[in-house]
Amino acid sequence: MKTKNLAVGGLIAVLTLALWYNFLLKPSRSEASKVKAETATEKAKLPPLEAQLAQANNDAAHASTFKARLAALKHAVPETPELANFLRDANGIAVASGIQWQSVTHAPPTPGEAGTASIAVGIQIKGTYEQVVDYLTRISSLRRLLVLDNVQFTATAATAAPGATPGATPGAGESTGPFSGGPVLSVTIAARMFDTPTDLALATDGTAATTPAA
User: Fold this and answer.
1) DSSP state, 143?
2) If 158 and its partner were Cys, which of 17, 95, 183, 207 is the partner (CB 3.0–4.6 Å)?
3) What is the pTM of this model?
4) CA 110, CA 76: separation in Å to the nearest integer?
5) Angstrom distance (rounded) from CA 8 to CA 52
6) How many CB atoms lie within 10 A of CB 15?
7) Average pLDDT in the 127-143 region?
8) Which residues contact 7 (CB under 8 A, 6 or more apart)?
């Protein structure tokens, strides 16, 4: 009888273990494996997301730099000719340099490469060597992109200022530097500037503006 009870007890233990394995342990292991696989999949997605986040943070940190560069490019090559602004800047440079006379002319925009239009610009100035050098330095530093294709120098006689004695010897400020033949230089500049127009038909005709002697 005792042996029979032991056998029944063992059978019950085996059945209990089988039920525990099939209904508790096995499903738990399967679920754990599934969760582990899903975790590995999500971890594999993490590095690219971290890289994108790092790039976004880097772009945000340099946003102000990019914005400043874009603004500089728009000033250098605007969407419209902005000829009035250029003439105003040229006149300001002439006054600041003490140039005695300036004439600025421009042609209508003509289509160029990469969606840009080229505007031929002609500039004539008169002044001493020092004034001319200062003028050229200033105009080369304009925010507007201006390509100087040709610069010609001619030494001429000075124009007497109002009230000056005819034939008077020019002062020290009227030096022509390495040039000779006259105290005043006459300079002719052939240049180009550019824009990115949406309609070249809106381009204006050439005009001229003159800054009188200071």
Assistant:
1) S
2) 183
3) 0.56
4) 17
5) 65
6) 10
7) 93
8) none
